[in-house]
Amino acid sequence: MPTLKEPVDVMTTQEAASYLGVSVSSVQKLVESGVLSAWRTQGGHRRIPREALLAYKGGLEPAGAQRAARSRLIVVEDDPMLRAVYAARIAQWELPLDLTICRSGYDGLIEIGVNAPDILLLDISMRGIDGYEIMETVLARPALRHVHIAIVTGLEREELDSRGGIPPGVAFFQKPLPLEQLRGFVTACCMHKQRAQA
């Protein structure tokens, strides 16, 4: 299950039902019909961004604020096939995003330095500067404290432990790409920025 930064609050289906004053099955129907954004954990449990619930309760379309603040997403991935998948699928999500895809850790660091992202998706295993080094660099910079980071890797958690593990506040996703989980994570991050700037 991804570990999210504290500001990006999420609720279980039960918590969402209690918050909205409806049944769990009603929440499930809202999710299945696309009215509420959600994603599933690796254990199969739904997670719903708090911002999506606030928007729904206020009678707003969660993903409809085209004039709202846009989030900047940087994906760092050295596999050309996966870069193409990211580009195609993220475009389909229709989120208020500006996407940049970098083909190497070196390119990623330069891009982060020039245009700091709001969201960062990192492949870990890359030649030269890898995703772990990028993550450590970003986490060490106070000016980048706002960046939501997700590791996307084929490595097991145990293998990452040998390099110091997954820092608190960094999400972990296992390859093959769990696109619906990633969509939920990115959606929550976008809504967090919109709410912060509302």
TrEMBL record:
PROSITE patterns: RESPONSE_REGULATORY (PS50110). GO terms for molecular function: DNA binding. Keywords: Phosphoprotein. Transmembrane segments: none annotated. SMART domains: REC. The keyword Transcription does not apply. Residues 72-190 form the Response regulatory domain. The modification 4-aspartylphosphate is found at D123. Pfam families: HTH_17, Response_reg. GO terms for biological process: phosphorelay signal transduction system. This is DNA binding domain-containing protein, excisionase family. It comes from Massilia yuzhufengensis.
